[in-house]
Structures are given as C-alpha cells and as structure tokens.
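Narrative summary of target 7.
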Amino acid sequence: MQFRTARRWLFGGMTTALAVGVTITAGTQIQPAAQRTAPDGSPTLPLGAADLTETRTSRQIAPGVTHIAIERGQASAGEFWTVTVGLATSEAEAEALSEKVRAAGYEPRLDPTAGPDPRGPQDRPLGWAVRVGRYSDEAAADRARKAIAARGLSAAVQHTGADGHATNGPWSLDVLVVDPARFRGSLRSELASGVVPGRETTSSMARRTHALAAVNGGYFVVGGSHTTPGNWVAGTDGDPAGISVVGGTLLSESVGERPALVIPGDFARGASVRRLRTSSTVTVAGGATRTVTGLNRQPGLIVNCGGVGTITPFSHPAHDYTCGNVNELVALTAKFGSTAPQGPGYQVTLDATGRVTAVRGSRGGAVPASGTLLQGTGTEAQWLRTHVRTGARLTVRSTVSDADTGAAVPLTARTSVVNGGPLLLRDGATALDPVRDGWSPEDIKGADRAALYNDWYLRRNPRTAAGVTLDGRVVLLTADGRRPDRSAGLSITEAAEVLRSLGAVDALNLDGGGSTTMVVRGALQGRPSDAAGERPAADALVVVPRPAPVRPAS
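Modeled conformation, tokenized:
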C-alpha cells in the first residue's frame, strides 16, 4: 500500500506514527485531576479547565437525603457535528475505509480515539474514527449522513465534544446523597411492574412506591426481538442482565464477577459496592445434585455472557452480547410471571415445599404461583428425566458470595442488590478493569467490539452511577449527555473521577445512556437523551420514607 503522508498522534506525552493519505486531527488524553476547589474553597468537579464556572444548588429532600444539582462549563470552541463512517484499529483498516469514502465522493478525516486498547499497547490510540465533514448543527450533519448512507456506507451522526478528549463541557449533573446516620426510611431496589417481564419508567416506579427520589438501576434486556445468541441483547424484555435481589429474593444470576450495589437493610446502612458471584443448585432427595445455570430467564440466552456451564462462544462477561448454551437448567418462580418460555426440553413443577407435582416432556405452560418451575435443555433435560419423578422432593438453593473474599452475602427480607459495571472506584482509587468487566475490544466474529468500547466506554454518554463514602453515605449520580448545548455527558474515566470528587471511596457504573433518569419529589431531573423521552427500565433504586405510625382512634 502506498502512504502519501505521515502524521503523528499525541497520547499522554507519547507520540505514535500513523502513515495514511488522509487528514488526521490531534487528540490528548485526559489525566485524572486532583481535588479542585473554587476561589472560595468549595469543591468543584474535575471536569474541563480548572477555572470553569460551576454552580451547585443543594436542597434537603428529607432528613438525611440531599439533592444537589450541578452545572459546569460551557460549549467549547472548535467542536462540531460530524458523520462517522466507521472505526479503524490499524493503518490498513484506516486506509481501506478511507478509500471507500473517497470512492463515494467524500474526503475522509481520521480522528483518534480518546484512549488506547486496554489490553495494550498504551502508547497509541485504540483506533481512528473515519469521518466526513464539519457541521454547525445536527440537522445538517444528518442530511449528510443520509446522503452518505445512500451511497452504501454505514454512517452515524456524532458530536466531537463527546469523543472523550479535553473539553470545557458543558455538564449538567444531579446528585442524591443518602446519609444512614440521619435517614429513617429505606433505599431499595424496585422491580418494574413487580415481575421480571416488562419495563416501567423510573418516574412511574417512584410514584407507585411513594418515593422521595429515585434513579434508574441496572442493565436489562430491551425489546426481546432476538431469539438466538449473537451480537445483540436477546431474551425476555425487562429481564435484568446481571444479579438482582429484591426484597431479599435472588431474582437473577450474576454476570461473572461484575460489581453490584448491595443494600443490606433499612436506612441504607451498611451499603457497599462489591464484586459478587451467585451459585444455584437443585438436589434430589437421595443426593443427586445439579448446577442451576440460570434464574428467571429464557434457557439458552445469556445476556452479557459470564454465566456457568457449557456456554458458547465463551464464558467471560461481554457487554451487550448474548452468549448461548444448549445445555441449561433454569429455575423460574412467580417473579418471572405467569407463563413460562416454550420450547423443546423437559420441565418439572415443584410446589412450595419442593415436592414434584408434575413433569412434562417439553417446556412451557403456567408458572406456579408458589413454588418453582425447572426447565432443562440438552443434557440437563436428560438429567431431569433420569433423576426426577412425580412425588419426589427437590431442594433448590441459591447463594450470593463476595467474589474477592469468598464470604457469603446474607440475604434478608430487606436486602437489595442492583447489578452494574464497570467497577469505578475501590478504596478511594480508580479501579477500572474493562477486560474483566466485559468491555474488552476483543475480536468476536460478527461483533465490532472495538467500536462498542470506543462509543460506550471512551466517549461521553449519559451516565448513572453509585458510590459509598468512607462514613457510609450513599451517593447516586446522574449526568445528562448527548446534548452538546446542555451537557456533554461523561466518559467512564470521568464518571470515576466525579464520584471520587464527591467523596465516594467505592463506586460502580449503573445502566446509562437513554436509561439515565433521576426523579426527585415526583419531578424529573435533567433531560433523558432518548428522543421519545424517559426510557422504561427493569428496576430502579427508590428512596422511600418510613410509613407514618398508625395512631389508635381516640
């Protein structure tokens, strides 16, 4: 290949040569900032230049519950709307994609990503966004996108202020602080509509529970239109895509050892951010035991991967990817809803005491209102046929443990657990490990994981996150994004730094993007990024006051 020019890319003080025949813009890595203060000594966020204007409006929602609205920065000069045709991770890819752009009649530009491949090397970017044009408004960029797409190229409209490089904003964030030393209510997880299938807006869940405030919770399946594994989210709409404990009941298994927010009981006392692992088994009276591979989901579809058993194509976490398993044993309870997934396999119905009341040579039908339905496929269907008879007694047991220490996590009637990831902070230090948590830009057939890592992790997006301070206060953060005139959003690294600046020592990212929502006293804070408005979610964290005591009639 003939390269016509050689340019250089600046990253963290190091330079890497990239020789391609297109225009390349420079980018700089954002370095974590130390605690910043305004001239009056008050803390400010580690976002943008240190001298940016920042305003904080604080109000007490209830004793021990504080809402803080933060506005910082302003639009940065030199940022613009553009059309992204693809992400190239090598010189050869960059040149090949650039030639396609030229053949379509456009002049390509290469913009470096805001960080490297987390697997290395660290002295070069993950890749380069191949782009066309500079537009002052989104509408003009979208017209260009349509014209480019009409010539057979994939195209997406993006704003360079969200790329993850240095910017001055603006940013719009909302923070809830729950102090267990003063709060006399509960911070808990709430399942949308009370069952796994289906979703509900955070505003609706807040109204239904009479919450003082609420934020959206963990990851979940959207749509459920896909019925096979692959580079998409497949399964039951509203199914939590990770561990979920509501009212002390484990409803969904963990994704590998991803982090979660654990709330042991009332007042948010003892809340923690921990890497968790779940384990479930079924034992037949007489000793035969089998691993239960899933809870309250469709057999064969493991969203975000990271499960147990004969999973394909791998068993480690992979965000927004659905792994498969033809040999599954899945336990369903009434929390899954009244109707079980249909398909080939074998099915066993247990009553509330664990006695087998029915067996069936296929999957489907009613889920018992009290009891458990076991669905087996492949080898696990054969195990059920061999070991289970009507009238036998089975014991289904599930445990939750700390993945780092192995210690059991006790579940009481007031315990809540909300899934998330990646882990942001541990013991006051940044603890980002995108490979372990499932955001690795690894090569997977049919999946552009490098683009996902760039768009989801390195670029700025709306974010929801949670942290715990050294003295046990819970900090819930939402950051608006995808609105350059109002809020740029946060990269994952920025989310970690913001939580640390707010006093958190342990923190994790929750579901974000169009899901990001905070409700305070019934009013939506910020502006959801979806064009349709607030996105229905699978669960929410609700701050609920303690009910007033019932006074006896005089």
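Confidence is low (pLDDT under 50) at residues 1-33.
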